[in-house]
Amino acid sequence: MPLKTLHIPTADGQADAFAAFPDDGAQHPGVLMYADGFGIRPVLRGMARELAEHGYYVLVPNTFHRHGPAPVVELPAHIGEEDRPAVFARLMPLIEAHTAERVLSDADAYLGFLTTRPEVGAGPVAVTGYCIGGLYAMRTAAAHPARVAAVAAFHAPVGVDGPDLFSRLTARVHLGHAEGDMTPEALDGLHRALDAGGVAYTSEVYPGTTHGFTMSDTDAFSASGLKRHWDRLFPLLDRTLTTRE
Length: 245
Hints:
By secondary structure, the protein is α/β, with parallel strands linked by helices. The protein is built from seven helices and eight strands. It has one domain (3-241): Alpha/Beta hydrolase fold, catalytic domain (Rossmann fold), CATH 3.40.50.
């Protein structure tokens, strides 16, 4: 399963990225994957490869490319609880600087790039994201209703933008929450807002998980949570991007 290093022109310079895709000479549906706040690192490459093995062209951009190539912030091989304060002290200025306007400007570039790739089919694409990347995925899907057929966000603050974002969503949505990410009242409010926006969605709390459960290089990792994430993501993509049953 090849990994190809890429540089994508954006309104603010070149964004470094990588793509994972089947090396079979055929065209495959495109998936834009947004990393969590820790950014591109080996665990993201592994997850992109696993998704590509199921027949997708997976593009993973460096969200914080304006601040330098990935890794923008040096990370330990395993991000333990004792590491988080120092890491987040360096990450938070980058996250705060990555405004909604920047997210959407970059999304235009990333989706446009996918249309140029000979390995990517002409049909709709999906967007998936983790933690803050899940919010970026939702913003991208809402801004490109004619292009994005599915969006999935995991342990993500998807309610930040409120009902206005949901009213613009036409993609099918899956939201996988960690226990403790939202109070029952907040989750109920999120579901009411999604219903009011007419969104076709599934939303569930993954049992026994904490925030960041998909990432195997952190203390939050849950093997059962990661499996459940794949068990929800693959059928969503197969249903919306391909004709496979």
